[in-house]
Amino acid sequence: MPLQTRSLRLRPLAESDETFYCRLYSDAAVLTRVGPPLTQEAAQGAFKRVLRQVAATPPRSHYWMLYAGVADAPLGLMALVPDRDDPTSAEVGVLLLPDAQGQGYATEAIAALADSVFAVPGLQRLWTRHASGHGAAVGLMRRLGFVAGPGASDAGAQSRWQLLRGDWSATRS
Asked: Which CATH class is domain 3-172?
């Protein structure tokens, strides 16, 4: 499902996106608060697995390329990965090129995704995680109405966040 926002165009991941996907997942600056960068070979293998997940019936994950307006060059990637053990829950994540970070793109993309998935029956909860002490991610989660998830502290070092369908609906009405 393609998504559109005021300033973003999001389209489903395609085979032709391998170079950009591998660039994101092998870039230490992009992954600073996520994890260690992958080698080119590992990133290519991960991309192939993601394509299989996206192509499955029903899809085992959804990925979108993020573009600013009508720009031809992507600025990031967003994923929605349903929980295997809970069909009413899914993890959401966004990776952006360093120049695109701090511009509000992740907020806009996740809000569009929440609007889309919570508009139809099914998912009841979106969740996300980030490295402890990642202040920008904490701010992003709070702006979107996510609350600290189980096991997280209130000291600003939360690493798991969740957004419930009812809470999102309440903020949008």
From this structure: alpha beta
